[in-house]
Amino acid sequence: MNIEQLQQVYFSADCLYSLQDVEEALDELIAPIIQDLGDKTPLVLGVMNGSLATLGYLLPRLPCLLEIDYVHATRYQGALQGNQLIWKRKPDVELKGRHILLVDDLLDQGITLKAIADYCLEQGAAQVKIAVLGTKKIQGYQAPIKADYSALDIPDKYVFGFGMDYHNYWRNAPGIFVCQE
To answer: Which end of the chain has fewer CB atoms at under 10 Å, N or C?
Structure first.
């Protein structure tokens, strides 16, 4: 895709959630996260690259002692369809006995998040909780894992913005946008 095509995608997209809508929805996740993990010195693992915006918003609002790291596992690699899971980076810190908060942008099929959560548990994590910006509602599909904290419902359409990408671009779009079909 060239720059003009990428710009056209943004300018023709419908705004599903404004930046203010996203921030207000994320505000609602703070209290339950603190209630569940605030006294456990959680390890917050961002799932790259999608979690960057959500992490940047959540972390300063969590008034508890925590440690952060990240994982990078992908099935998409810039494509629209996912294939086999590829680990690009596993956590550097010890997971055994830790209370982990996985943070990601979107739970759609849930295959990648389930694999990451399973890996954490296999490494001896005491608990794995999942926080996502949005959960995609795919008709007739039951994801193999559920988010413990989800800020927004996302329709079964191609979306981008606030960490979610369109062919590796537009993660920085201020809100969540639906591509025109």
So the answer is: C
Active site residues: 108
So what's the pLDDT on residue 169? 96
**Distances, alpha carbon 58 to alpha carbons 50, 74, 138, in Å:** 14, 22, 26
Q: Which residue has tokens 């908060």?
A: 101
Query: Do the Cβ atoms of 153 and 134 come closer than 8 Å?
Result: yes
Report the C-alpha gap between 170 and 147 in whole angstroms: 24
Task: Determine which helix (DSSP H) or strand (DSSP E) holds 69, and give its type and residue range.
Answer: strand 67-74
Q: How far apart are CA 114 and CA 19, in angstroms?
A: 28
Average pLDDT for the chain: 94
Q: Looking at the DSSP assignment, which residues form a beta bridge with residue 172?
A: none
With residue 101 as reference, give the H or E element that holds it. Answer: strand 99-107
Sign of the torsion formed by the C-alpha atoms of 80, 134, 4 and 74 = negative
